[in-house]
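Researcher: Re-running this chain for the archive, since the previous output was lost when a drive failed. Same request as before.
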Amino acid sequence: MENEYIQTAAVSSDGASDDNIIIVGKISKNKHSLIEGIVALNIYDKMEETLRFNDIIMCGQQLIEFADAARLATNRRTIIKHFGERLRQTATTNYVFSRLDNNTRYYICEKSEAIGMYILFAIGAVHTPVKTLANIKQTANHILANYMEPVGEIISMTTVSEIMECLDSKYSFSEKVFNHDNIIFAIIPYSHREFNSECMIADTNVPVVCLYHMNERGVEQGATPIAVFFHELGHVLHIRCFGSPFRVPNDLVDFLSDLCFPTIKDITESEQNEIFADVLSIGLMQGTKYGEYDLFKEIHSDDKRAFKAIVEKLLKKIESD
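Model: Regenerated structure tokens:
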């Protein structure tokens, strides 16, 4: 893949192939500088193509090509630094200005802007060239392995906004849960092979909730975009209360075991986290017009009222902390 990219990306001024880049010791200094300049120009062109974020799958391919080319460049530290600056600038311009223009504690984006947000936070902070290039390729390979054309439905920006307005009116949810950081809801117009949504925690501790088209399993199980969104809000509430999404406190595990999940102590912590997010999502839906989107019809209404009580106690805990 690397050789194929170099042959197409770097050409000499007379249109010949860039085989000379391999035997640099045999060509003149001026020609060497010319070739290096052309290679650098093409790397920056590839960078800008990637940062348009028109198609996440194409972005994955372009990120690999960019990383392979940058790895071979003599000025790769400068290239990587510029890449990080341009990535952050391109992906977050609207987000930054939205924080100046209004007092909401969340930001909703879709399409190319959402793709840019995902790539920015998936790659993470720019470190050494070696580490950053490894992160770029890891993100690109994940994109190519997991993202696919849409299968089922996806939530809209309007619906996300309406749900947040409902929860803010009922609980002042945004003010309590999102604290001083503006959470990002990124509606990405693709399906993911494994997830219908996911919650990422960036280096800046700003949660990024990625919302996808329902995948095949989600469609088969009857999952809806609204139910999936509430599930992610459950994860965010979990993180806000306990500082981590990776463990449910023992007293809550004991309570749920006695209430209606007798086998919850026998499953992994990761599975407990997902059940807890479902519990909180059901609790948040109770007493709102979104209760009809509750997928867990088999759970008794008394238990669901207990889930609502858990939500209310956690929100009070946030107030008192």
